[in-house]
Amino acid sequence: MMIKKLLFSLPLFVISVNIYAQTDTSKTLVIVGGQDAALAYNQGINDANAGNYDEAVANFNKAVNAKSKFDKAFYNRGIIELEQGLNKKALYDFDEALASNYQKANYYLAKAIAQSRMKNYEEALKNIHKAETLGYNKSQIKYFYGYIYFRQGKYKDAQRVYTDAINVNSKYAYAYCDRATAHMKLGNYKAALDDYNTALEIMPNATFVYILRADAKAAQNNFTAAVEDISLAMKIDGDDNLQLLNARGILYGRAKKYKLAMNDFNSCISKYPDSPDAYINIGNMLMNQKKYSDAEKNYTKAIEIDSENIAAWNNRSNAKELQFNLKGAESDRKKARELERNAN
Amino acid sequence: MRKITILFTLIFGFVSGIAFAQEKPKIKKSEFLTIDAGAKEAWKSIKTGNKFYKKNEIGAYRVAAMSYATALEYNDTYAPLLYKAGVSEVMISSDKLALRHLTDANDFSSSVADDIMYWIALSKHHLNRFSEARSDYDEAASSMNEKNKKKFHNAITLRLTQCDNGTVLLNKPDKAVAQLLTGEINTEYPEIAPVFAHVDSSLFFGSKRWEGNSAKRWGKDLDPCADIFYCKANNGKFTGLQNESSLNKSVTDYPAAISMSNDVFYVSRKNKKIIEYYKKSENSKFFKRDKIFKKVISLSFSSDSSQALICTRKGPGVQGYDIMICKRVKGKYSDAQSLGNLVNTQYDEVMASFGANDTVIYFASNGQNSVGGFDIMKTSFHNGKWGKPENLGLGINSGTDENYFQLAPGETRIGYYSSKQQGGAGDYDIYKVLLLNEPLIQYQAMPHYELAADLAKEPILNLEDPEVIKTMRLTVVKGKVTDYDETKNLYARITITDNSTNQITQQIMTDSETGEYTVMLASGKNYAMTVTCDGYLFHSENFDIPKTSSYQEIRKDIKLLPMDPGSKVVLNNVFFDTGKSDLRPESFGELNRLAEVFRLYPNLVIEVSGHTDSQGNRQHNITLSLNRANAVRDYLLAQGVNPGQVVAKGYGPDQPRDTNATAEGRQNNRRVEAKILSN
């Protein structure tokens, strides 16, 4: 899902009552009144494209309050909620959108995505089918069937429909990429590598393909090659990308190259002091080396940065338990579960 | 079922029946001695090493390893010495060092010994490097001569299975974890059979250490027999090591069990394979009461003492040990029954103890799915039988031996056991064990994405397009307000009214110095503009702004007449229907402003005059114009204006202000005026 950039934008000036020494001619173009819903809706799109999701939702709220059957506003609010992981709310909004306009294929597809996020795969498949019958882009429909089958653990079916998607659109890099993951699940490493390589021929600068290919190589315990893939991704995205630095650090750790792993994690810490991720990754690496006390210290630092980080609380609980600090472990585990409940 | 015992040192003592210690390769003096300096001492160490190496016994290997280590300081490139040093180190569980020596020996001469790959594999196996060990065992099996192949066949077959088990467990979460006990407990010698006394937090265990040991050597063993020692637990550390002399004899002794009341102690006499029963006296010394079990090497009781677990040989001439369960009948344990074929294998199952409830049993086995040597297993009683045991995982088990697990009294998750795993003080060491309630799941800092659809967000879903917003173009109205002679710029109030809605849309003040003003008005509408200023007669303007989509500017300069007699203003925003004299509602704004002028000037007297164009009957026009003037007067009076202050006149077409020849001129001539008569 990518939120489309807004192409259409109007200067939103109200009628001025000021005296202008010199008149700015552009300011004589003004918006006709009675368009509150549309204005809030458009502003919501602007906010969404700027990544200001809370503001976007607030504006879509205004839009649907001003116009109760505003299907596009419900749909867009649902898309933002999907982006925020608020799947239940998103599902409600897609239903509202469909109640006003049941002929929109993308509304069914969005509903299917929300349902798949809630692991309601059978219902999701029904809605994908509706989107398909309403003429939604065929290769993308096949691709999304693949997504659902994959999530259901039906890797052979996923493989088949990803192939269908590729047959419709031979340049469909995403389909190659996810078919590769299905191949991996079915134990066909060579076919997976071929698909990742094809995806990279189509989208040579797609760092996510390098990340997934690195994952596949790591699954074969080929950590050196996996690290090379992440390093290639860093050449595209820059060597100060938090996700890539952490990913490479983890791979170094799995290869038992602890010094190199620490270099990457320390880079994360110096470049992103507000991110707890590197501390958690260091903690995990130390746990794997059975250095529980040092791991606990790193999880504590992660918690100091982000007191609501579920991974840090959970993993510190593990570290405490493995040091026989059962009360401390229980307390941290309780906190992690509480945060998990709130997150859901 | 015939029991098979191979390779392993059961409990501790001699290396098992098959003598793996190779006298070959021979360390040749002429090859080993390279330089004179230190040669004599080095060769002496070789001879000592060889002497003990041959004994094929753990204590002797300990001495051999020390001697060879001294010799290696003289020459560490001689393969036969490296081989023997390596084998000795494997035997005393110093596997990291063993692997180094054996790998070096193989590098210097791959033909140094026919079985060298086996020992390399074994040391890797002990270090949990299961995949590598498996590969090396395979290589050993294929490269050995026929004699060795036969000799090692059973051992390698079992080891390969154990490596496979280890590889499986490497990918499974641990079910228990171990923590090496610190303090005075663990030494380079074996410490075994930890039994925790709940009442006074004492940990009893067997140890073959020399220091404080009252026992003698037994048989060929160079190490002393084990004695029972104890330490007190204090803040997680064990201190105050004592030899519990009242329990020890000159044979291998180790604790089997302690009663919950701490006053009955069960001692295993390993050499005699008996369990003895001791009672605590008033002076806290134990005194022997009886031999309660014969031909038994371990004992454990259920929580209510109604059952006992023993470990014994199944029958005469049968190798290996099985776990049996006995019921207490009339104060005696009898009717020993095997735990069944799911638990007891063709190998050894030993040292069983009950779990937190009596439906779980922990024990050590080198059969089952052991990953190497003895591993700690768990079996549960279900549907009338003891189920298939599960290995408690690599958190506590390793490629070498783990044994003697017991829960601490009153604990459901914490116990103690002995392990030879790497990282200890040497040989068997005692560890504290935590049984995990559930596998500990390590959370990742960032979500792990498997699909491009998650990681890169395939652009399936876009936001719906924006709405098209309707706009309009404003017209700029600019101008200047001055007095009538344009000698003075006026600071005047300008009020703009949308005549279609009769709503004031804007109200502004002119610039106090220049009299300039600017307003922006929606195009395509009709407006009333009223200009007021203290001391001046207000000005009324009515104008249309044509529709336009492009920029438009209109200039309107306004001249205000003074509030003096004779000054007059056209009431441009007073409207009547054609031929009628009823005021249209959109006139009220203008007339209200006129009424306001009377409030500001209480002495004001005006004439309101009606005018028409020249079209039509003159008399009719005069009457119409008078009626219209009266309509305005009536409205003003209704707003509270004194009747004496407003005079109404109808001039018909007689006072035109523009030509009657054009429509625009006639429009200008149709009007209502207000003229000041006095003020």
Structure characterization notes:
- The complex is a heterodimer of chains A (344) and B (679).
- In chain A, 72% of the residues lie in helices and 1% in strands.
- Chain A has 344 residues and is mainly alpha-helical.
- Among the domains of chain A are: 92 residues, Alpha Horseshoe (Serine Threonine Protein Phosphatase 5, Tetratricopeptide repeat); 71 residues, Tetratricopeptide repeat domain (Serine Threonine Protein Phosphatase 5, Tetratricopeptide repeat), CATH 1.25.40.10.
- The N terminus of chain A is likely disordered.
- Chain B has four domains: 142 residues, Serine Threonine Protein Phosphatase 5, Tetratricopeptide repeat (Alpha Horseshoe), CATH 1.25.40; 260 residues, Neuraminidase (6 Propeller), CATH 2.120.10.30; 109 residues, Immunoglobulin-like, CATH 2.60.40; 117 residues, OmpA-like domain (60s Ribosomal Protein L30, Chain: A, 2-Layer Sandwich), CATH 3.30.1330.
- Helix content of chain B is 23%, strand content 31%.
- Chain B contains twelve helices and 33 strands.
- In chain B, strand 26 and strand 27 form a beta hairpin.
- Strand 1 of chain A pairs antiparallel with strand 22 of chain B.
